[in-house]
């Protein structure tokens, strides 16, 4: 059976060009970038070249890039690093109810350490209101963190507008751009952000590596202490092969994103139209137009998301009910609840995220099998008998 992978928001396959770029740094050029002899300097050169590539794609300077172990660490470094470095100025952090757990859990940690967190609600599409951000800023606010686009429902947030508000108020602004970098244009100056998180495995790079952009002059403390790597902002011997992979993935992302985003948006719209046409009592979650080109998130009444996933898997189709991190839990997605869905509606959610290998044949196959799966599950559903 042909396997159809439609869960690119969870992770992406590593691009063959990325693997090719990484391979020499496992064996021939295995030196430690901190060593001053030529082996080390070869590795140092590769790390710095990757830093330039990462910076280039987001309109930053290479010295503003800190390599991390991924998006989670980048988010943690942004949140805790700025909060602790600026605790003399204030103890207030603003975020939103639709952030990834990496941001929300870092906020909870800060709250336990005495910081005050304001978690803003979103509208039914998952959009944060920039005016609401403006209203909750106080002279104690040190950081605003609003994601660029949702990993679950694909909604693209008004980051540019919030950036202007943050700038006027003199408050640092972080965005989690894990789902956008390499997929849609991201420019730190245009967005008006001081910090921005990146994860390689969401853009055809390897897992376990990412980066945090930190605008020059931003006060930040390190969370990992040890050696002097990353200008003392993140200790530990650099993961050279993976950093090289991230650099190459960013480069390829820049080259391919324009064409790819158009292609995927077309497939996305065809899939949304088809699902709504072929299955009754289905709704699209997230914003109808301000959404990632590859994201389809729907709620299907009277059916459990998990049952749909398992049945799709039997047909060779990989999809998801929410973020990869929460899909193992039976809790309804905090993002869907924040959009105002009932727990039952949230449980009936299904996310398809398209990518490089997705074709029209894949989306047609989904449209061929999903109606039958839903009909079968509804026939056995105790939910259907519940008066609504
Ligand atoms: N932020 C967002 C929006 C994500 O989608 C993810 C991954 O699911 C992360 C952060 C965490 O990134 P990583 O898996 O690299 O730790």
Topology (elements, then pairings):
Layout: E1 4-5, H1 16-22, H2 38-57, E2 65-68, H3 71-85, E3 92-96, H4 101-112, E4 116-120, H5 130-136, E5 141-145, H6 159-169, E6 172-176, H7 188-191, E7 195-199, E8 210-214, H8 229-232, H9 240-278, E9 282-284, E10 295-300, H10 305-314, E11 317-318, H11 334-338, H12 343-347, E12 349-353, H13 360-379
Parallel strand pairs: 1-11, 3-4, 3-5, 5-6, 6-7
Antiparallel strand pairs: 2-8, 7-8, 9-10, 10-12
The structure holds pyridoxal-5'-phosphate.
Pyridoxal-5'-phosphate (PLP) binds at residues 70-72, 75, 100, 102, 147, 151, 176, 178-179, 199, 201, 210, 323-324.
What would the principal axes of the Cα set say about the shape? Answer: globular
Mean pLDDT: 96
Number of domains: 2
Give the bound compounds.
Answer: pyridoxal-5'-phosphate
Largest sheet: 7 strands, mixed
At CATH level 2, the architecture of the largest domain is 3-Layer(aba) Sandwich
Low-confidence stretches: none
Q: The CATH topology of the largest domain, please?
A: Aspartate Aminotransferase, domain 2
Distance N to C terminus: 39 Å
């Amino acid at each position: 059976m042909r396997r159809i992978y439609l869960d690119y928001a969870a992770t992406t396959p590593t691009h063959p060009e990325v693997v090719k770029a990484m391979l020499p740094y496992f064996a021939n050029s295995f030196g430690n970038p901190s060593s001053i002899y030529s082996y080390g300097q070869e590795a140092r050169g590769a790390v710095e070249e990757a830093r330039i590539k990462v910076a280039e794609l987001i309109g930053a300077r290479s010295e503003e890039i800190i390599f991390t172990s991924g998006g989670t660490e980048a988010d943690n470094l942004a949140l805790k690093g700025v909060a602790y470095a600026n605790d003399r100025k204030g103890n207030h952090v603003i975020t939103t109810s639709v952030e990834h757990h990496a941001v929300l859990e870092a906020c909870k940690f800060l709250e336990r350490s005495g910081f005050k967190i304001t978690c803003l609600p979103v509208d039914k599409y998952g959009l944060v209101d920039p005016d609401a951000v403006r209203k909750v800023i106080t002279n104690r606010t040190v950081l605003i963190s609003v994601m660029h686009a949702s990993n679950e429902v694909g909604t693209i947030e008004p980051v540019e507008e919030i950036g202007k508000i943050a700038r006027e108020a003199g408050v640092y602004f972080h965005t989690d751009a894990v789902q956008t970098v390499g997929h849609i244009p991201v420019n730190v100056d245009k967005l008006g952000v001081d910090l921005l998180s990146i994860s390689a495995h969401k853009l055809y790079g390897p897992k376990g590596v990412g980066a945090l952009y930190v605008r020059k002059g931003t006060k930040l403390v390190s969370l990992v202490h040890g050696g002097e790597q990353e200008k003392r902002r993140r200790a530990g011997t650099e993961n050279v092969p993976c950093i090289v992979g991230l650099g190459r993935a960013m480069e390829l992302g820049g080259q391919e994103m324009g064409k790819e985003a158009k292609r995927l948006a077309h497939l996305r719209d065809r899939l949304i139209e088809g699902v709504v046409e072929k299955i009754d009592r289905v709704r699209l979650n997230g914003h109808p137009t301000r959404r990632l080109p590859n994201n389809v998130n729907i709620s299907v009444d009277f059916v459990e998301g998990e049952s749909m996933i398992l049945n799709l898997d039997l047909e060779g189709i990989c999809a998801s009910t929410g973020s990869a991190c929460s899909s193992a839990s039976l809790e309804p997605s905090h993002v869907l609840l924040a959009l105002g869905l009932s727990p039952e509606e949230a449980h009936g959610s299904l996310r398809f995220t398209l990518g490089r290998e997705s074709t029209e044949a894949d989306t047609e196959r989904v449209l061929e099998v999903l109606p039958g799966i839903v009909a079968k599950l509804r026939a056995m559903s105790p939910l259907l008998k519940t008066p609504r």
